[in-house]
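Technical note accompanying the year-one report. For the benefit of new consortium partners, we illustrate the data format agreed upon in the data management plan: each record pairs a sequence with a structure-token string. No post-processing was applied to the example shown here.
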Amino acid sequence: MEFNRKISKPLGEILVERGILSKDQLIESLKVQENSGGLFGEIVVRLGFAKEEDIAHCLSLQFGFPYLPLENYEISQDIIKLIPKNVATHYCVMPIDKIGNALTVAMANPLNIQAIEDLEDMTGCEIQIFVGTPSDIHASIDRFYK
């Protein structure tokens, strides 16, 4: 799986350029990440410096994956059945649509190669990625997985 970066800058730099983070907030977020690990975007949200949507939009810019808000999206049960609930929850991924051999999913972390490979193996489909926020994806999992 090859990622075609649209902007070859770190997420933190993009957030600062867009006026979402101050330089001080960037430094603080990086220190927290260095000390406790974790995904930079999640740390920034947890610290209250940005909203999930801000992170999703910047990931879209950075990696060229489109952002897809899920709240008004209707997803058929045929599509839901392609990915078990435990897998969807574990990888924070939501199946959206399938056209031919291409399965479109929303992911909170579009760089999770392991998740993408597992989904490809599990479904036999080529995975097309959209970026979604973690809370949006979890709300959709709760809504569509009966």
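Partners are asked to follow this layout when depositing records. The chain has a mean pLDDT of 92.
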